[in-house]
Each structure stands twice: as C-alpha cells, then as structure tokens.
Amino acid sequence: MSEHESGPESPITYGLQVPRGATQLGPLVRYRSPALIAAYKPELDAAVANKEAEARVKAEEKLRQGETVPTPTVTVDTPPSNDTFKLLDDSPRPDSTISLMRVDGKPTVVVRRMLAQINAALPNSNIVLNDLSTYCTSIERRITSCRLDVRGLTKDDRDVRVVLAVDPGNYTTRTSAPSALTRPVMTLTVEYIGEPRKGQLTKESNSLDNVPDTGSPELSGLIWPKMDEDAPATSRLVNGWTAPADATIILSGFRPKFAIVTTPRAAEGDIIAQEFVRTNSPKGAFTKDIVEDLNEVSTTYTTTATGGAVARATYVLSARGNYTALFYTPAPN
User: Fold this and answer.
1) Which of 34, 25, 6, 49 has its CA nearest to residue 288?
2) HEC profile of the chain
3) What 3-state DSSP class applies to 320?
4) pLDDT tens digits, residue range 85-121?
5) Would the pTM of this model clear 0.85, i.e. be above it?
6) pLDDT for res 54
7) pLDDT band, residue 72 (cuts 50/70/90)
8) Which residues pair with 191 in a beta bridge?
C-alpha cells in the first residue's frame, strides 16, 4: 500500500468505513457547506469588526503618546492560512465529507458492503441490498454506472444525505479514468443537511449498529465490464481540466467528474485548486473557506458555473503530503 492509500475499515464519518475490498486514495475531503458558512458569517463579521475596532483604539492611543504607527503592509497568503473562523471561540466543524475509493475486490461484494453500512447509518432508509439494478444502469447486462442518493436520520437524529456513486469506466472504449488501475472507482459523499447550528452542538456518532449481512445471492445478475487500460494522465478531466506536469493523479473518475492529485510543493496544490474554480466561474469569482481540522488544513474554493453546475476544489495539507481534489457537479435536472 502506497503512502497515498488508506485500507479497509479506515473511518469516514457517522460510523461509515472504507469497506473491505476497497482502498481510499488521499485523505478525506472535508469542507463546510454554504449553509453552515452562512449560519456563522454574522458572528464572524461581528468578531472581525470588534478586532478592527480594538486595533484602531490601540493605534490612536499610540499616536496620542507620540509613537509612530506603522502602515500595514499587504502580504501574499502562503498555504496554509488560518482557519476562516479562527476568531470565534469554537470554529464550526466541517459538515460535508467525501471519500474517494478504488474498488480492488469483487465489485458486487464491495458495493453491497457499502450499501449495508449506509443502511445501518440511516436505519429507516430501506436500502435494497440484494439487487444492484435498483441503483445501477446497464447495457446488455454490463454495468455502466451506479448511484444511490438517500436522505435520512442517523441514530442520533442527525438529518444526513448520503450519495454513493460507482464508475466502472467507459463501457464503449473499455477504458478507465486515469490512475484507476482498470478498476471501478467509488465515491461516497456524506452531508449534514439539518439546521446548521444544531449539527454543531454535539459530535456525530462514530459507530454503526446492526449492519445487515450481505451474504445472500445478488438477484440482478448484472456484470461489471472489464477495462483494458487507464486513460492517459494527459486526458481532459473534470469539465475539460488537464493535470499540470508537476501534479500526479492518484485517482479520477468520469461519473461523477472528479480528480485528486498530489504535488511536491504546497503552493502548487493551492494554485491548482484556485485556477480550476476560477476557470469554471463565469466572472472569475469564487468563495474560499479554510478549515483547520485535526492534523490537516483544508482550503476549499467553490463557484457556481454556467448553467448552475458547481465547481469545487479542496486543497489539503497533511502530514501525508499535499493533495488537491477537484469536483464538477452538474445542476440538478
């Protein structure tokens, strides 16, 4: 296992784990949702205004005492910067998490294990565990994509949305996305969608109860198509984006559109994230939010692209290295 991989049973969130037979590439992508940021922005604005007022009072006092007040100098941010909400006593924790996984084992078995975990995390979701045709599209019995989008309450009454997507590769060309190793790619997105402040009161549960058994026969009889090769690293990915020469793709997918890369230097990863979002912004505008979380600093850039699609990029500085994850989500139909 490389330094970029996390094996089975690595924690994701809400008790969910990387299932046996899958490998997570890169760190978890964690960020604050727009709703969470909006809920705490008035409090942050007040804290910023208070800090600026205190600075003015100190400057005026120095002037009265005949001291010289230095002119503030503009400094260019170098990653990592401070948490966006650092001025608050308790910065809001990220409420959205994405795990990017490669399926190394038997895909049907691995996907059913993941579905069983989601069923346990959302006890009343009634997820179908023994018929992949419920969530997977196919051509001549060959799976072309899988997607589960479910909302429900966890055992501690948190309102959560879970999206599981599996991309086996391009069925027509028999080609996987770059760095998929000709294996299916699985993405798991977990979002808290309840009242933002309520979700911050206590930490979510990190255990699952009554995970269903998946040993029964699978009923659909669908087949996972075998891919002949990965697409080259120079391929156009994530709405036309191509990886720069100094970035190494460690995983990518066609559906949904994503790529995660590692770079030798922090600044390069941050620039990739900014430029991706800026390129997808109709007017070059985007939002930026920085999270200091555990032993990582995550900087997320977000914009709404033409037609309502969302382009998001998260740069993660961690002890394991520098990672940048890029996502392009089309507008809902």
Assistant:
1) 34
2) CCCCEECCCCECCCCCECCCCEEEECCCEEECCHHHHHHHHHHHHHHHHHHHHHHHHHHHHHHHCCCCCCCCCCCCCCCCCCCCCCCCCCCCCCCEEEEEEEECCCHHHHHHHHHHHHHHHCCCCCCCCCCHHHCEEEECCEEEEEEEEEEEECCCCCEEEEEEEEECCECCCCEECCCCCCCCEEEEEEEECCCCCHHHCCCCCCCCCCCCCCCCCCCCCCECCCCCEECCCCCCECCCECCCCCCEEEEEECCCEEEEEEECCHHHHHHHHHHHHHHHCCCCCCEEEEEEECCEEEEEEEEECHHHCEEEEEEEEECCEEEEEEEEECCCC
3) coil
4) 999 988 999 999 999 999 999 999 999 999 999 999 9
5) yes
6) 63
7) low
8) 96, 161
Predicted local confidence at residue 265, as pLDDT: 92
Phi, psi (degrees; rounded to nearest 5) at 204: -70, 155
- Do 320 and 3 form a contact (C-beta atoms < 8 A)? yes
Q: Which pLDDT tens digit goes with each residue over 135-164? A: 999 999 999 999 999 999 999 899 999 999
* Domain residue ranges in the chain: 5-35+92-202+218-329
| Residue reference for tokens 């394991």 | 320
What six digits make up the tokens of 76? 């260019």
Token pair 């001549």 is found at 140
